[in-house]
Design goal:
The protein has 508 residues and is mainly alpha-helical. It contains 19 helices and 2 strands.
Amino acid sequence: MKIRIRVIVGIMMFLGYYIMYIVRYNLSVHILDMTQMKKRVYLYNGSEITARATGTRGGVINLINLNSLKISTIFCAYHVGYVICFPIFHTRGDKLGPTLVVGIAGLTSGMLNCLTPAAAYFHFWALFAVRILKGFCAGAMLPSMVQLLRNWMPPTERNHFMWAYCGITIGTFSTFVCCAVIEYYSKWPIGFYVTGVTQIIWAALWICIITDYPAKHPFISKSELDYLNKSLCASFTIKSINSQAPWKQILRSVPFWTLCMLHFGYAWMIISICIHGPMYYCIVVQYSIYSASALTALPFLLRLILGTALMQLFHRFKMNSSPERIRSARRYIVVVSHVLPGLLVASTWVTHLVPGPILLTMAVALTAAGMDLTLELCYELSPTYANLLNTVIKIIGNIPGIVVPLTVGNVTNQFNESPYVWKHVWCFHASVLLLSGMVFLIWGDTHVQPWNSIYQRPPHSPRVKQKPSMMSNIDEVDEDNLSRQQSYRPSMVLKPLKILQPKSSNTV
């Protein structure tokens, strides 16, 4: 039985996402053992609580003096680089070649990960620079991998290759488990070396066995190449349509901004638990490093199981339901993924309880209902510009990676890391999730918007081919099969294309 080359491409993409997210969040675990945190005595409900110092296993020589504010700055550095680089490589990555971009970025990120311990010992700003450069590498890899998927996967098979994106959730879960195991058997620098070398090996294999197009691959069979040429020849690129996107109408659209807020609140809660979960469980709730890492990993394992099951059930529901029932079901999904977990944690604001492993695990696990919600709603609002909207929304969704650590770092640095302070921190996170869900339920819309069929062209130069804008190649997930059936013919007056609607388819 011949091994299909496109299956190997899917496997390499899965491993790429998997390793990328381990590199992204491994600092959340290793920071507990690499920093020297002074012992403090807090007063909570009249009783004294002593926060133990972390990093005692490594000895005084291996410890780095970082306060809460510096730690938060290090955490946000990765997301700063990611947000800056992500839109750039949506336009430049295709010209440079997605395979080469991913390979070079992966090699660079792996080497930077190996240099993280040396940078941490040398100077705080050296560690900051390493983190921001790793964010740049991730911002180059993600859009280039999506572009490569378009070149290899036929439209009729792309739904079967969505498992490649599961590397994101599995990688997040594995980060805390693998780093805890490394911490148990060795010291914190080894964790960076292991993940860095792993990413270097993956990037080297990527360069050796992956090509930009099937025709360039040296080992592809003639039958598979003929099949891909026939199935991909009718592939319709939305680059030309995206260059004519009606940005004024989109930016004035209330449903678009409610969808942005929906994803913003969702990302806020997920990023918060990824960054501060191990630190909170270890320093405040007084668990060991290994237990704290396991407790942080648990909700992501539940998200993977529940999210997969719910997506399968909803897919079957769409096959046998009317469009109105599907739209109503999506609103119920928002209640489960945003409103309910937000209320679950935010309700402790009026009690004497402090959010702990049980409440936080339940809240994060319930967000699994909204794992694929953003992309679904983008197609509901605009089948033509769905991929462009989805990518812009995901760029906005990475802003919490900058805001959350800086905000929490300033609060804990000023008011100390007491259970009382962290109670307000978690309740605020949950309130953001709750508020984003409520805004969508009140003002959100799931119908096709009027600007979906509007195409902009400069009035004074109708026949001049316009250079695509910086936003013209933004495609986070490939285009809908229905939109591929359109044909684009530039003329003096562009007539709106008819868009076929998808078938209805104390501590707790």
